[in-house]
Amino acid sequence: MANAPLLELRDVHVHYGVIEAVRGINLTVNEGEVVTLIGGNGAGKTTTLRAISMVHGPSHGQILFRGEDITTLQSHKVVQKGIIQVPEGRHIFPNMSVAENLEMGAFQRTVARKQLDQELDHIFGLFPRLKERRKQMGGTLSGGEQQMLAIGRALMAKPVILMLDEPSMGLAPQVVELVFEVIAQVNADGVPILLIEQNAQMALQAAKRGYVIETGEIVLEDEARSLLGNDRVRKAYLGEE
Amino acid sequence: MAAVLKNPGIKRFSDNVAKFWFAMGPFRYLVAAGLMILVPVIMERGYLPEWTLLGYLDGLYGTNILFTTGVWILLALGLNVVVGMAGLLDLGYVAFLMLGAYTTALFTESGSAEQFHFAILNPWLALPIALVVAMLAGVLLGVPTLRLRGDYLAIVTLGFHEIVRQTMNNLEVTNGSRGIFGIPHPSVPVTGELGLDGTPYWQWLLVPAIILAVIMIKHLENSRVGRYWTALREDEVAAAAMGVPVTKMKVLAFVIGASTSGVAGWIYAVKLNYISPNNFPLLQSILVLCAVVIGGLGSIAGAVLGAALVIMLPEIVREASGGAEVFGFDIETGRIAVFGVLLIIVMIFRPGGLLAAKRRRVELMEAGAADMVISEAGPDPDETAAPVGQEPVVTEGDDVRAPSEGGEER
Ligand SMILES: Nc1ncnc2c1ncn2[C@@H]1O[C@H](COP(=O)(O)OP(=O)(O)OP(=O)(O)O)[C@@H](O)[C@H]1O
Ligand SMILES: [Mg+2]
Asked: Does residue B294 sit in the same domain as residue B344?
């Protein structure tokens, strides 16, 4: 399976009871890529991500990670494989300090204290704001800081692939910019990324390839640059006439 | 109350006691056991002066209160795992006590000759069965409620208590509302068969069970499991994203929680000889929760203190006022009255509970700086005096309900 994609969704369907929120999507992420999945509210983006992480698995279809079907695994086993997500809406641990939140990201791995400190320093290098606030409780951080923390925590898990669900949601433009800078940097360090976004402009600029999802189906799939120029995308997602 | 606890003299004293206590290492459990076994003997003889408050609880009356207190300490320890550590609000916890007690009755030579039995065993052999039945019930409650959170879980567990109680009330094999009598006392070495006096139960059964439970729970708390529970309690979505086996950990919390009350149920049944559904009103489940909250959610020492308060304080108030009443109420109503008031006072002045679980500092924090952090995190610099071990465990276990930083945000 040497040339299998890192992550591959084959005809994935996801149901909530009788409601079919994702209707047979195919999607791949290759080594080193940033791939974005864009779509409007309720299109099924979060559902797709939760299916990949097996928090709410698919009702039909396959999800292959390095050629191996992971739909039989429990969600914590998926995490152990290095498939790490930053869930929608910045779920951080409110009563843990910034540093402790970050350490929670690493606790699936057995890391020596010294190395852990180095890894923390690396995250603090990406997000200096977090360093200043390393002892502050997570719940008292601003929205932007919480998003940085959620991303930092996911990075502490040493992802083989990182999946982010609308990391720019509700953030001020400068913070969005910072978040995208970090995404680029993480990718430059060799981590492939699946980026879910409504901010199509930023996402398509950051990504190599993109998928557009509407009511549970992939309606477009192309190089990100081409999608940026695509009429349908421009109208529906870039607010252009 | 808060003022007293903040008094620098008292705080220094309690800090020193705590330091001394933890300096003993594992040996402290032996010392605790020794004290717990000795004090009741003195108490029973009436040698304790009244200002110790325990002095009011002398004679057979006192030993029976001590017995009840022991049972409740086991209950509070177990419920603290479920609610305080894993953050699962269980309002029907006494169901497990009931199951332990009834299992004991149905596996020993109890009741009349016609009374139904699964088997007639030595009471000691009924102990592991009661334990296993309670733990299985933990799975039974845990699995279907996995998807429920907060209020919904609370309501289902509330129902669970009533379902178990009504089942016992209506089944023929449990002799319905008449209950089962004649549950045999167990025998122990030296003393022989235990009788109706509470002290030997306390010394032979409750103290060892409590110490074992504390050691087990402390061990879990300091292990990966404790860390998982903390994450789960803090934010389930984040916990799942970080690879916490959510399902397993929730069920495990219910099972561990149920284990102590299964044992408590066995001790309860073999001491009292008689059990009936009326012994287990729903209010008991609420009172155990009350004990855990007053003591401090997530705090092991707090659970012990809370249980002791819930059982002993109303009795002490009654004895001290020299009558049969507690503030003009009968003892059971008085208990609720006392606890309603105490709960409100504690929640106002020490929202984390009397012995609030202190965040065990992840040792990345430099030793000195850690204190500063806690006070800068919130307006209330009231560091709890709770003695909490500072075992040098790498990034393990973390309790987070200290009043200074919890509360408002949740
Ligand atoms: N737990 C659930 N139970 C039932 N239906 C759900 C559940 N979660 C999501 N849905 C439905 O599935 C559909 C897809 O939801 P999803 O959260 O995946 O959308 P999304 O693309 O992430 O939208 P947004 O950008 O608003 O986050 C929606 O119609 C939603 O109502
Ligand atoms: Mg979404």
From this structure: yes
